Amino acid sequence: MPPLTQQARARGMSERTLRRRLAECGTRYEALVDYVRLVRAEELLTTRDLPLHTIAALLGFSDARTLRRAVARWFGKDPSEMRRAAPPPHAS
Predict the structure, then answer these.
(1) Residues 9-30 as b or e (16 or more Cβ within 10 Å = b)
(2) For the chain, does the N or the C end have fewer beta carbons within 10 angstroms?
(3) What are the φ/ψ torsions at residue 49 (nearest 5 degrees)?
(4) pTM of the entire structure?
(5) Which pairs from 35-43 meet CB under 8 Å and 24+ separation?
């Protein structure tokens, strides 16, 4: 995920202005990043057979252990439980 300063610059505003605008909407940049990671993690874990270290890298985590902790916080499960609970892929 691009850092807040990069996001602010891309929108032609200062970091402080972007933080203020997000606060006006009742959120923070970090919360948005966390939500995007959550949605993408669920998708990657339940529809792909990628190694955890690859998923961690795609989501911007430093390693698979950090991903495992985030998945436990978000879903109350570990990644392997999520994969087992996912519906099987549709046959073509």
Answers:
(1) eeeeeeeeebeeebeeeeeebe
(2) C
(3) -115, 50
(4) 0.81
(5) 36/1, 37/1, 37/61, 37/70, 38/70, 38/74, 41/67, 41/70, 41/71, 41/74, 42/74, 42/75, 42/82
Maximum distance among all alpha carbons in the chain?
50
Query: CA-to-CA distance for 23 and 90, rounded, in angstroms?
Result: 42
Instruction: Indicate the DSSP class of residue 6.
Output: H
Cα(42)–Cα(92) distance, rounded to whole angstroms? Answer: 23
Please report how the helices 15-24 and 29-47 are oriented relative to each other, as an axis angle in degrees rounded to 10: 80
pLDDT in tens, 39-84: 999 999 998 889 999 999 999 999 999 999 999 999 999 999 999 8
